[in-house]
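=== RUN LOG ===
request id: a7f3
mode: sequence -> structure
chains: 1
length: 118
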Amino acid sequence: MKPGATGIKRVIDAAGYSVQGLKAAWINEAAFRQELVLLVVLTVVTCFLPVTKFEQLAMVASMFLVVIVELINSAIEATVDRIGSEHHELSGRAKDIGSAAVFVSMCFVAITWLVILL
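=== RESULT ===
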């Protein structure tokens, strides 16, 4: 095991690293910024739709999933880019699969919203 803080200090440190990650994503990832803005806007929109609180929660949660998957995809892309800039089939595959995960999560948003609104 790697040495480090334990207990509440570890939790506080982890929260700090998470904030650093969110800042890095905001600064370096246009897709993250766009999806986060869309999350905020569409969350406000759900407040004016004729849906139950549970349906509203499902709609907002599906959008949070896109942001979560985008963060993971961005981490994959950063790791692949760190390894090297030369083209490699596995690097391309990792990036494509990460992108596909974001696409599938967006499809989930569309399906969730359509099922609830229609």
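=== NOTES ===
Residues 76 and 82 are 10 Å apart (CA to CA).
The mean pLDDT is 95.
=== END ===
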